[in-house]
Design a protein that fits this description.
Order of helices and strands: HEHEHEHEHEEHEHEHEH
Radius of gyration: 17 Å
Structural class: alpha/beta
Shape: globular
Largest sheet: 9 strands, parallel
CATH class: Alpha Beta
CATH architecture: Alpha-Beta Barrel
Number of strands: 9
Helix content: 25-40%
Number of helices: 9
Length: 225
């Protein structure tokens, strides 16, 4: 298996523009596999559970230039730890969570980078702002000035066709552009975190600046680490 992860990463790199940030999603991935991805040039890694991430981060402290991203649903009682251990939080899925992170960030030396998770299509299995909720919350989100709000993140429902997937990603980009046109001082909206192993090429076609890839890099998950 040695070198397979690096081979996959190289193949992906050949498919994507240099402007796109490639994040390796390491849910249920061993520290050894993460190190192989690091050796292949990956510096951005993502976890979706705090309790799984912290032991890995501890074991990888000798790699100081790793940038950690949190991409899972963030419970309020884990917000402080997320801010302490992750440079990016992609899954700010409610105004209540944004306000909590904003309060907690007051003691940090720099503003945490966050994306607002939006459900561009209705999906009871996903967290996130609906489009109407997000638009209604913009003025309150602008007041969260201890956060560096970078843009939108979305995860699409399962079972969409290729054309439906592309249209949903394009709708996410259009929403970001609509928000950006309002010139809200604290909402930068330069980033679109969208696209995973099955649909990242469509996400890039629609304007993704960040893609989050797990299975296509590390293979099928083998269960708990």
């Amino acid at each position: 298996m040695t070198g397979l992860i690096a081979q996959r990463i190289n193949q992906i790199r050949q498919q994507i523009p240099s402007r796109v940030r490639l994040i390796a999603v390491t849910k249920q991935v061993s520290v050894e596999a993460i190190r192989e991805a690091y050796e292949a040039g990956i510096r951005d890694f993502a976890e979706n559970r705090i309790q799984e991430a912290l032991p890995k981060q501890k074991q990888l402290e000798d790699l100081p230039d790793i940038c950690w991203h949190f991409i899972g649903h963030l419970q309020a009682n884990k917000a402080q730890k997320a801010l302490e251990h992750f440079e990016w939080i992609h899954s700010v899925d409610s105004l209540k969570l944004a306000r909590r992170l904003d309060r907690l960030a007051d003691s940090l030396p720099s503003k945490p980078k966050v994306c607002l998770q939006v459900k561009i299509l209705s999906d009871p299995k996903k967290y996130g702002f609906s489009v109407s909720e997000l638009l209604a919350a913009l003025s309150e989100l602008e007041r969260c000035d201890r956060l560096n709000i970078r843009g939108l993140m979305t995860i699409l429902p399962l079972g969409l066709s290729r054309s439906e997937t592309l249209a949903a990603f394009q709708a996410t980009r259009s929403l970001a552009e609509k928000i950006k046109q309002q010139n809200l001082s604290n909402l930068v909206f330069e980033e679109l975190s969208m696209g995973m192993s099955a649909d990242y090429l469509l996400a890039i076609e629609a304007g993704a600046t960040i893609i989050r890839l797990g299975r296509i890099i590390f293979g099928e998950r083998q269960g708990k680490i």
